[in-house]
Amino acid sequence: MEHTNLPSHAAQAAEAEALAAAADLEQGLTRHLMEYHQSEASSDESARQRPRVGRVPPHVRNLDGGAEAYTPKFVSIGPIHHADATLRRHSHDLKVAYLHSLIARRTPDPIDEVAVLAALIGYKAGVAAVEDRARRFYKEPVDEHLTAEAFVDLLVLDAAFLLEHMLNLATGYEDPLLHRTHWAPSQLHSDLIRFENQVPFFVVAELLALSPLHRDPELEACRAGAGRRRDFLRSIGVHCLLRKDDEELKTLPPSDDIHHLLHLYSLSLTEARLRRPHAHAGLGATAWRALWKLPIVTLMPFAYLLCSGGADDGKGEEEDEAAAVKLPNIPSATDLQRVGIKFKRAPRKPDGGFLDVRLEDGDTLVIPMVNIEQFTAPQLQNLIALEQATPELPDDCSCYAFFMDNLVANPADVALLESEGILKSNLGSHKAEFERFFFGKENKFKLSLSSKRHILGFKLKREDTLL
Known about the structure:
Layout: H1 9-49, H2 58-61, H3 66-70, H4 85-104, H5 113-128, H6 131-137, H7 148-171, H8 184-192, H9 201-209, H10 217-224, H11 226-229, H12 232-242, H13 261-274, H14 278-281, H15 295-298, H16 301-308, H17 333-338, E1 342-345, E2 358-360, E3 364-367, E4 370-372, H18 376-389, H19 396-407, H20 411-419, E5 423-425, H21 430-439, H22 444-460
Parallel strand pairs: 1-3, 4-5
Antiparallel strand pairs: 2-3
């Protein structure tokens, strides 16, 4: 009689346990993976929906001259300053005219009232569909006096104004309503890059999608074919800000990932600096993300120690609890000159914009010209406010302000940099303006730096952030 080897009860039990463990592992892995995926998707959506614009905190606005830097002077964009009667008096009629001009671009023929009304209804419907998202775009609750319909109207009017302005610049058209005074175009440009004065880019994109540009066939071809060639909205935005083609800034994110016009400006400056020709990069090819990574500090440690070790630059650095991190001083221009560092002005249109500070040939610090005029400080202060409110952005402008504040420590530094063409003033007496800008009560680089210190300190203590 032939015996068959049957598995023992122990072996059967072990096999059953192994099968059950495998099934549990498979089910558990699926569950864990899906839970992780949902968590990541939720985090991504949360980051995408988080507020992007808010009022600059009082402890920053209340610094000398701070409020002036963040408040528009000619045109309000978005809900934060919409109730300002002076701004409304300056620009409401201009906004309405630009909205009408945008609608008129739909056809080469004169447009009638029915077509105007139909276009406006379409704009309102398109923006109403993203109203909730637009409300979440702002940190503070939108003015309680703005009903849902009024908020949509505000977004339509302001986004249409911004879009029409960008289209005018793209086609080289100088609208007589804007250009009837010499100061309005430059003030408008400054207002459009103020942190508190922004409208969501996705609202502008919505209006562009609803705005055929048949009055200008070439422009319409670009708009309709943007997906095949390049991002049309981003392109006209870059031209509006920098008067240059975004073909030079090939790795900028698409307009879907751009929060607002100031955000695009910041991205463009950083991208321009990082994409400068390799021959211009010198020894500072690695982007300086923090002050201690500046080429002059990393490549000249002996000069750094000689010039700044324990020295007091006489500025009386403010001691406050917000200055949680003490950043090392950078030698002043005259101190650097004493140890053999030369200074040279960058080309008039530097590859990397005003941030394109670099060391060439190991001993020449190349710095783009700083033109001291009424918009210099607000531009820098609003870029810094954006950096501190947007964790994913590098601190390039904050670092630049710190660098310049240390570089210009006394009138001798001003004289040296002015002689090299690095400093220039368009405001009255050069000497008086330089002294007021760098050493007076309203020292603009110090003001920008103080803003960074306040915000940085609050971030580190986890008590507050800009947004």
